[in-house]
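User: I'm putting together notes for a lab meeting next week and I want to include a structural view of one of the chains we've been expressing. I don't have a solved structure, so I'd like a prediction I can at least talk through. The sequence is below, exactly as it appears in our construct file.
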Amino acid sequence: MRADKQPPARISRRGRPPQCEGPALDRARLIATLLDMARSGGIEALNIRPVARRLGVSPRLLYHHVRDKEEMLGLLTDEILRGRMPDLSAPDWESRLRSIARAVHMAYRDFPGSAAFILSRSANRLEQPNALAIRRAIFAALAEAGLTQPQSDEMLVIFSVIVLGNVVVAESLTDNDDRLAMQRDVVEAAFTRATDMLLSAIRAVAGTA
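Assistant: Thanks for the context. Below is the predicted structure for the 209-residue chain, given as structure tokens.
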């Protein structure tokens, strides 16, 4: 080859130059973007392509961090929980369960759709570290209360429905509308009473164990 001749530019198999995939993407920037988008628009609006556009990268780069949308939302909901991990230092099981319920409730109510996602799609998924830590803390408290494992399994379901279900109902309502059968402030206030009823039920079941 003559010295003054340059080799031709590499052409992709489809006859077009390779596209730039955008700036490097690390996990921290992905999580920060997911949190921002979920807080403003809810998690159901999060899809791979819109997230990639917000980040200014090719959708292919996201697949270096998550397999699909489901895993991306699981990563997001666990990160939401990480920011509100409860104090588990209380010496008695009732205080610890109340702390867990309050922390989980506060965490997800700021991110529309997150509680519904957990209830409907990820109840059986155990790979998220913060959710797993909460699950273990709940089971430890229930065992301390005197429940058997089958009883604890049932109480975990009831706990999830009370805590996350309250968030789902509240976020489906406007702030207050006299035309609605339920008012949002009443639903949110009912959470404390529902938590009291849950603890009473645990004591009752433990007494028959």
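A couple of points you could mention at the meeting. Residues 9-13, 15-19 have pLDDT under 50 and may be disordered. The two ends are 87 Å apart (CA to CA).

User: Perfect, that's what I needed.
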